[in-house]
C-alpha cells in the first residue's frame, strides 16, 4: 500500500481532508486510528461511515509491518527485525536520543563490497506506507524525533516512495525537516529532486574514499561520479538548505585509512559546509575487511580535526548485536538456511520461524 492509497480509501468512506489528517496523525503517533482530541471526541468529529470503515483500514495498516524480533544493544539502541506482509524482512534501528534508522528496500542493488545487504542484490522496493509503518512501530516503543534513511537499501533507487514518506513524516508526522536524513551513495536524480521538495531533508553522502577508482571498486554499482564532483553537488544542496552534508566514511583497515586519503580529505573539505563521519567497520569473523586499530582512528580524527575538518567517529548502533548494514537480517537468513540444511532443527527460534 502506498500512502496515497490510504488517503484514497479514507476519502472513499466519505472522509474530508481534515478527517484524513486526524486519522493519519493518530496512526503516525502509534495510536488507534479513531483517537479523539482533548476537546473533541471522535464521534463528534468523524462521520459514521468513516468510523465504521476504520477497523478494516487499521487491519491493513497492521499488516504492513510487524516486529518479528528485537535486539537491544548496550549503547541504548535497539535493532528491530521487521517482517512485511509478504514475509520479507528488513531492519529498523531505534537509536539513542530519539532517533530511528529505517530501511527503504529489501536488499540493495549497489553491492558495496563491505555491506551484507549488498550481497543479496535488490529483492524489492518498499512502499511509502511500509517505510512510515517502521516509524509507527518505533514510536510504539519510544519517542522518535529523528528518522534516518540509512537502513537496508539505497533511497535514491526508490526515490518516489522515499520522498512521499519524507513528505508525510515532515508534515503530519511532526518531524523537523533537518531531522529527516536522506542517505545516498550519490545519484544525480537526488540533486535534481530534493531541492524541489516541500520537505527538504538533511543529506548524508556515502563517500568512503577520495580515490575515484577505489570508490568504484568498493561501490561497484554506484553512479560514476568523481568524489570531487559529488562533493560539489553536495555543497550546493547544503547551502540551499543551510544545513551541512554528512559525509559517511566506512573505515577499512589498510584500504581507506592512509595518510594520502587524509590529505585528500583536507583538500576536498576545505571551505565546505560539511561533517565527516568516520564509521569504523564492524568486522564479523572471517571477514575480508577489518576495522583499523583504535589508536589509528584517534590519530586520524586528531589530524583532520586539528586542520579544520569537523570529524566525528560514529560506531554502528547496536554493534554488539551484529550491527551494521543488513547484518542482523543476514544472520537471521543464515540461521534459517542453516536450519533448513539441518532438517529444520532450529524451528523453535523466533527468528527462524519468522522467515519465509
Ligand atoms: S552500504 Fe548501503 S548502498 Fe551500499 S550495498 Fe549496503 S545498503 Fe546498499
UniProtKB/TrEMBL annotation:
InterPro entries: Aldolase_TIM, Methyltransferase_A, rRNA_lsu_MTrfase_RlmN/Cfr, rSAM, rSAM_sf. The keyword Iron applies. GO terms for biological process: rRNA base methylation; tRNA methylation. GO terms for cellular component: cytoplasm. Its cofactor is [4Fe-4S] cluster. Its main location: cytoplasm. Residues 94-320 form the Radical SAM core domain. Keywords: 4Fe-4S, Cytoplasm, Disulfide bond, Iron, Iron-sulfur, Metal-binding, Methyltransferase, S-adenosyl-L-methionine, Transferase. It is found in: Cytoplasm. The keyword Lipid biosynthesis does not apply. One of its GO terms (molecular function) is 4 iron, 4 sulfur cluster binding. Belongs to the radical SAM superfamily. RlmN family. This is 23S rRNA (Adenine2503-C2)-methyltransferase. It comes from Ectopseudomonas guguanensis.
Amino acid at each position: 500500500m502506498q500512502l496515497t492509497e490510504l488517503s484514497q480509501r479514507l476519502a472513499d468512506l466519505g472522509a474530508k481532508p481534515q478527517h484524513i489528517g486526524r486519522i493519519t496523525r493518530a496512526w503516525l503517533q502509534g495510536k488507534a486510528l479513531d483517537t479523539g482530541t482533548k476537546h473533541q471526541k471522535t464521534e463528534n468529529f468523524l462521520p459514521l461511515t468513516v468510523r465504521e470503515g476504520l477497523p478494516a483500514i487499521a487491519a491493513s495498516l497492521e499488516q504492513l509491518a510487524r516486529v518479528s524480533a528485537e535486539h537491544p544493544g548496550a549503547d541504548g539502541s535497539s535493532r528491530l527485525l521487521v517482517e512485511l506482509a509478504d514475509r520479507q524482512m528488513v531492519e529498523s534501528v531505534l537509536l539513542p536520543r530519539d532517533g530511528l534508522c529505517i530501511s527503504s528496500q529489501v536488499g540493495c542493488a549497489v553491492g558495496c563490497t563491505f555491506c551484507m545487504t549488498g550481497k543479496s542484490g535488490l529483492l524489492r522496493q518498499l512502499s511509502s506506507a511500509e517505510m512510515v509503518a517502521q516509524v509507527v512501530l518505533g514510536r510504539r516503543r519510544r519517542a522518535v524525533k529523528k528518522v534516518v534513511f540509512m537502513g537496508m537499501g539505497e533511497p535514491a533507487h526508490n526515490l518516489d516512495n522515499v520522498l512521499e514518506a519524507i513528505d508525510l513524516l515532515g508534515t503530519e508526522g511532526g518531524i523537523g525537516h533537518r531531522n529527516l536524513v536522506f542517505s545516498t551513495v550519490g545519484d544525480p536524480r537526488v540533486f535534481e529532486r530534493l531541492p524541489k521538495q516541500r520537505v527538504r531533508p538533511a543529506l548524508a553522502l556515502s563517500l568512503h574514499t577520495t580515490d575515484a577508482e577505489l570508490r568504484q571498486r568498493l561501490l561497484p554499482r554506484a553512479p560514476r561520479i568523481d568524489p570531487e564532483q559529488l562533493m560539489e553537488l553536495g555543497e550546493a544542496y547544503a547551502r540551499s538548505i543551510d544545513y551541512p552534508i554528512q559525509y559517511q566514511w566506512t573505515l577499512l583497515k589498510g584500504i581507506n585509512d592512509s595518510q594520502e586519503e587524509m590529505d585528500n580529505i583536507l583538500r576536498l573539505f576545505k571551505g565546505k559546509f560539511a561533517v565527516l563521519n568516520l564509521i569504523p567497520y564492524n568486522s564479523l569473523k572471517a571477514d575480508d575487511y577489518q576495522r583499523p586499530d583504535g589508536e589509528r582512528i584517534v590519530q586520524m580524527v586528531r589530524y583532520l580535526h586539528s586542520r579544520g575538518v569537523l570529524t566525528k567517529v560514529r560506531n554502528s548502533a547496536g554493534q554488539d548485536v551484529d550491527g551494521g548494514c543488513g547484518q542482523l537480517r543476514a544472520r537471521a537468513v543464515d540461521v534459517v538456511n542453516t536450519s533448513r540444511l539441518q532438517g529444520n532443527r532450529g524451528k523453535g527460534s523466533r527468528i527462524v520461524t519468522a522467515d519465509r
